[in-house]
Each structure stands twice: as structure tokens, then as C-alpha cells.
Design a protein that fits this description.
With 215 residues, the protein is of the alpha+beta class. The protein contains 8 helices and 4 strands; from the N terminus they run E-H-E-H-E-E-H-H-H-H-H-H. The chain has 2 domains: 99 residues, Glutaredoxin (3-Layer(aba) Sandwich), CATH 3.40.30.10; 106 residues, Up-down Bundle (Glutathione S-transferase Yfyf (Class Pi), Chain A, domain 2).
């Protein structure tokens, strides 16, 4: 069955592939699964019709027959569990890949998002200049740990998996901060992920929405 996902009609990232529907698009492309996209405006996201799909009024959502999911991590786990290409066949490796999916969301992403948002919410506050280095340090703690774990491996645990997909997307949120560039191991890791044909197709599809609006 062909799933339908929701995405921003006007994404705040202006087509840079950082909105969370990009994670779902990439996973579906890796699985070679065609899908439909329903674009929603910020106003539509607060209406009852969308809130029935996502109680917090966000994107993405995922509809497949009677199944409705929200939260990108839950959607990726569903795709990976039911389609080939994103989880290893070996049972132990499969569980480790799922562990990395959760690590990306629960351990690595929170300090990155906090650091990202402070520029928009606190840049005019008197404490901003002192607070930003503290947030950078929190991010660097995770980057040091992750770079040490990855070392000279191509992917986090043997072959590419849904855990790598999510981790690459999380690390991309550091673009423009000059933090990721200090970790060549991680920069190269992100470059490997974004060079994958499935990523390129997903990025082009999301970018086309912005280009269609701006043309």
C-alpha cells in the first residue's frame, strides 16, 4: 500500500532538507517505496483534521491504510521493520541498529536542538553571549563521544542502517555552527550519508517544494 506523509507547505528551512519529513522521505527512498506527500500550512496544522493525525500539530505524519503514525522516530522504525534495506538480518545487529536510532533522537539531538533554538529565542537577551559557549560545550561532549565510537568505521555498526540515517540527519542540524567541522570523522560520516542516492532523491523532492513556491 502506498503511504502518505505530511510536510510543510512552507518549510522554515527553505529547502535545506532539515525539516523532519526529510527523515521519512529518505527512509522510504532507501526502501524503494513510492509515497505521496500532502503539504500542510501552519494554519492547517492546528486544525482538527491534522490534530487527529498529530496531536501536537506538527509534521511529519504517516498514513498507510488504517495506520496513522506521528513522530519521525516511530515512523522510521515502522518503515525499517516492514521494508528491506534499513535493518540488518542478524537479530543482534538489528537490535543494535534500533538502539542507534534512539541514541540519535534521545542523546545526540537534544543538546543540538537546544543550541540551535537559542539563537532564535534568546539572541537579544543579556545572558546570550555567556550561554552560547556553554551550549556549544554540551554539544561537543556528545561529538567527542560519537567520534570516538565511530573511529575509522564507515557506519555506526557494520552496514548502513536506520540508526545511521537518523544520526546523519541529526548531525546535519549542526551545519553553520562550525562545530561539526572540528570533527573530520563525523564530517566524513555525514558526507557518506548524504551522498547516498536515496538521500539525494529525498533531498531533491523536498527541495522541489521550496523551489515551486519561490518560482
Amino acid at each position: 500500500m502506498r503511504p502518505t506523509i505530511t510536510a510543510f507547505a512552507q518549510s522554515p528551512d527553505q529547502g535545506q532538507g532539515l525539516a523532519r519529513d526529510m527523515r521519512v522521505r529518505w527512509a522510504l527512498e532507501e526502501a524503494d517505496q513510492p509515497y505521496d506527500v500532502r503539504l500542510v500550512s501552519f494554519e492547517e496544522m492546528k486544525r482538527p483534521e491534522h490534530l487527529a493525525l498529530h496531536p501536537f500539530g506538527q509534521i511529519p505524519t504517516y498514513e498507510e491504510g488504517s495506520l496513522v503514525l506521528f513522530e519521525s522516530g516511530a515512523i522510521l522504525l515502522h518503515i525499517a521493520a516492514h521494508r528491506p534495506g534499513l535493518l540488518p538480518d542478524d537479530p543482534d545487529a538489528r537490535e543494535r541498529a534500533i538502539g542507534w536510532l534512539f541514541a540519535a533522537l534521545n542523546t545526540v539531538e537534544p543538546p543540538i536542538v537546544e543550541r540551535e533554538q537559542v539563537e532564535y529565542t534568546e539572541a537579544d537577551r543579556s545572558w546570550y553571549a555567556a550561554r552560547l559557549p556553554l551550549l556549544d560545550d554540551r554539544v561537543r561532549v556528545r561529538m567527542n563521544q560519537l567520534a570516538g565510537r565511530l573511529a575509522d568505521a564507515e557506519w555506526l555498526d557494520e552496514g548502513f542502517s536506520v540508526g545511521d540515517l537518523m544520526m546523519v540527519m541529526v548531525l546535519r542540524r549542526l551545519e553553520g555552527t562550525n562545530i561539526l567541522e572540528d570533527y573530520p570523522t563525523l564530517s566524513d560520516y555525514v558526507a557518506r550519508g548524504t551522498a547516498r542516492p536515496a538521500y539525494q532523491r529525498a533531498f531533491a523532492a523536498q527541495r522541489a517544494v521550496f523551489e515551486g513556491l519561490s518560482s
